[in-house]
Design goal:
Blueprint: H1 6-17, H2 23-30, H3 34-46, E1 51-56, E2 67-73, H4 78-85, E3 91-97, E4 103-107, H5 115-122, E5 129-142, H6 154-161, H7 180-191, H8 197-204, H9 208-221, E6 224-229, E7 239-247, H10 252-260, E8 265-272, E9 277-283, H11 286-296, E10 303-317, E11 320-323, E12 326-330, H12 332-336
Antiparallel strand pairs: 1-6, 2-4, 2-5, 3-4, 3-10, 5-8, 7-9, 7-10, 8-9, 10-11, 11-12
Helix pairs in contact: 2-3, 7-9, 8-9
Length: 340
């Protein structure tokens, strides 16, 4: 497992808060030089540990809400099944897990997806699958773009916030339709969340001022939320847990809100399934997870019970395949090619 030094961690923490902040501003806040910041970013990118991407507002690429899917495999077939699922464009994340199921994935209904066929025929037909449970996401309290390291001072955080495009934890409820130029700009931001107006101008064959206006329009609308993509394990959070909770109906809103505010969370949703809430989170170690379950979840109202799995291997997050924390590539361009 690859790890970073304290200066790297401070830098990642700063960039998670403000992915598009000027390097000189980040350097000043962290007490270093812009050239040092630039060299550290370049090293992390060349090592394929870090990428700047953007999360797209669901309404711009999906025809409905996602599903969380739990898959049981025939003995000895888990790796092959997981590899086959990685070939499915709608599979946004793929994890091999412990517990009742062998694989956990999130399925996003992209434009043109025959969701019924995908869930009842295409996935079950993969050799080695024994059974599938798919649960519709009804409400989302937290997405991975909101997860970040908490290691900076309050003063540093406040200074960085002045350079933020928007609060990543508060996406707009809806985004209006984008014109062709805006959608093409969105494609660029998805591939490079720090793309400059000069770079976008060359790609779009427009003036620099037009490119700047297009970038600002897409960002201010909430169509794209720039983010740092890096495996939590590299940042000192090697344990990924998937916790499902059976909650009394009247307490679901309060529990969902509480878990959505938890620093550990990367994907917290209400689902239509045996468990009403799924909390996908990352932890420093087993003691951190055990304290979270007994103290934080234990203090919440209306919990009838919970089930828990842990990740044995993270094969994909945010449509980006990975191996041993290295970011291998992505299918984001394929995703954006299928516009609703």
């Amino acid at each position: 497992m690859q790890t970073l030094d304290d200066a790297d961690l401070d830098l990642v923490a700063a960039l998670q808060l403000t992915p598009r902040a000027p390097l000189n501003a980040v350097a000043e806040i962290l007490g270093t030089s812009a050239s040092t910041v630039g060299r550290r970013i370049q090293r992390l990118q060349e090592s394929q540990l870090l990428r700047f991407i953007s999360t797209v507002h669901w309404s711009l690429i999906l025809t409905g809400n996602p599903y969380v899917v739990w898959i049981k495999c025939e003995p000895g077939m888990t790796s092959g099944v997981a590899a086959a699922i990685q070939e499915v464009p709608e599979a946004q994340s793929v994890l091999i897990i412990s517990g009742d199921a062998d694989i956990y994935c999130t399925i996003y209904p992209l434009a043109g997806t025959d969701l019924r066929r995908l869930l009842t025929h295409t996935l079950p037909a993969i050799p080695g699958i024994a059974s599938i449970e798919s649960h519709l996401v009804l409400r989302t309290a937290r997405q991975a773009v909101a997860w970040h390291l908490n290691r900076l001072t309050g003063e540093q955080t406040a200074a960085l916030r002045e350079h933020a495009d928007a609060d990543p934890s508060s996406p707009p409820e809806s985004v209006g339709p984008l014109n062709e130029a805006e959608f093409n700009t969105l494609r660029l931001l998805v591939d490079d969340g720090r793309i400059t107006a000069a770079q976008a101008a060359r790609e779009l064959d427009v003036s620099r001022s037009t490119a700047y206006r297009l970038i600002q329009s897409v960002l201010e609308a909430g169509a794209a939320r720039p983010r740092v993509e890096i495996e939590p394990a590299v940042l000192g959070f090697p344990l990924t847990a998937l916790i499902t909770l059976d909650v009394q109906p009247q307490h679901i809103p309060a529990v969902l809100a509480a878990l959505g505010a938890e620093p550990s969370g990367r994907f917290t949703v209400m689902t239509a399934g045996p468990a009403s809430i799924t909390h996908h989170a990352v932890f420093r170690d087993e003691d951190h997870l055990s304290r979270f379950v007994t103290e934080d979840i234990g203090a919440l109202p209306g919990i009838n019970g919970l089930n828990m799995s842990t990740a044995l291997a993270v094969l994909r997050r945010q449509w980006i395949d990975r191996d041993n924390d290295v970011l291998l590539g992505d299918r984001v361009h394929d995703v954006l090619s299928r516009r609703p």
